[in-house]
Write a structure and sequence with these properties.
With 500 residues, the protein is of the alpha+beta class. A 4-stranded antiparallel sheet has the order 2-3-5-6, with no helix packed on it. Strands 1-4 form a two-stranded parallel sheet. The longest helix is centred in the C-terminal third of the chain and has 68 residues. The protein is elongated. 32% of the residues are buried. The N terminus and C terminus are likely disordered.
Length: 500
Amino acid sequence: MNFVATTFPAWRLLLILYTGLLAGCAVGPDFQRPPPPAAEGYTAQEQPAQTVTAENELGTAQRFIAGAAPDAAWWHAFGSPELDALIERALQSSPTLEAAQATLRQAQHLYEAHAGATQLPQVNATAGAQRQQVNNIAAGQTGGERTYSLYHAGVGVSYNLDLFGGNRRALEALAARAEYQRFQHEGARLTLAANVVTTAVIQAQLAAQIEASTASLAAQEAQIEITRQRFALGAAARNDVLALQTLVEQTRAGIPALQTEHDRLTHLLAVLAGQPPGAAGMPAFTLADFTLPSELPVSLPSELARRRPDIQAAEALLRAANAEYGTAVSRLYPQITLSADAASQALTSAGLFGSGTLVWGLAGQLTQPLFHGGLRDEARAAQAGFDAAAAHYRETVLQALRNVADVLRALDNDARILAAQAAASNAAQESLALVQQQYELGAASYLQLLIARQQFQQTRRELIAAQARRLTDTAALYQAMGGGWLPAEPVGLTGKEASR
């Protein structure tokens, strides 16, 4: 048998290795973006085109615009410049947002650090000196001991070929983690804005209830004075005075409780805006400050999954789990590392970089795991982590759909409640006026007047609460729709990779 000897230049070996690097595939499945929800609507019953109307300044009908998305600054729809200014202040000064932004920057820098450590060759410069003594006799030479100094300076380069994509999968996981923090930040912005709107509306509700209770107390105090005079003249019974006195004190006791809750919400608004509770210049809202939006955007379920920050955050965690599974699988495959060193060595520092001082070396190392009992279990654990992330994603989508369904039904039902409460309040007001006239003419008893007055006060408080609920329902819908932010391009992924 004859053999033909051939030469194989080193540059060809390097070219093959470089081609293998470019063609190397990342092990583990490529991430496939979950399909959007197949549901066409949010509720079992057909959603009405608009809510009912009521004879009230906050009782106008609201039309649902299917397929529409909220504006970026959706809170402007409430028509309150004070609310707009407060939310802008909160978005700029909130410690919660500041912490979320810092966490996002941390995740982005971790991604950049790992990218720099794995995608580019690592280059290190070395310099050193040593004093050394050798025994020539031990080496079979004459001359006894010899002492000398050795100086060296050089550069070393190393690179992991990452033929099976372990580093790329780890980088993909870090990019997904950074995406998760970005969506967490967007979710914090959305929650903050919604909390400011809701708190401002409830503060306005309490202010209206305090005003109504104060007016009722003044009227009752005037009435009890008249009743006392009538009792002194023998035209009223002692029981009439005591009954009215009880009503007056109950009304009086209710006002401080309402004021306490009003003050608590004022302090909360200040903190949401990044201010101390006692900060000056905080607005005091009334229901008259708000306009009920006449049109409400209702995104399709398929669009909702691409808009809500919590769903996008769950998807980012799913992408990270997929990449981490690929990283675990890559550890089962060979790892190839190339390194090169070039240095100058001399017996004196002045002799460095002179002729005849150059030393160099090239090395390549392939490591193939043969027996590592834990590697396959690591891959199985990563697979289980992906399954858990997938289940969490599905749960997040279902909860988001439920959230929207709840808000849509609340909007419709609370509009009906407001219509009924407005009609009840108007009827109670007319009834009170009629009984008051009858009482003055002696055609109605004082007990009938007290009952009419209590009914009017109760319906007035319930009307105020119904007005506030319509406003908070509207804010809840904007929040459920994911606000008005626009998704940015994922960290480290562009084009086709970002759409997978």
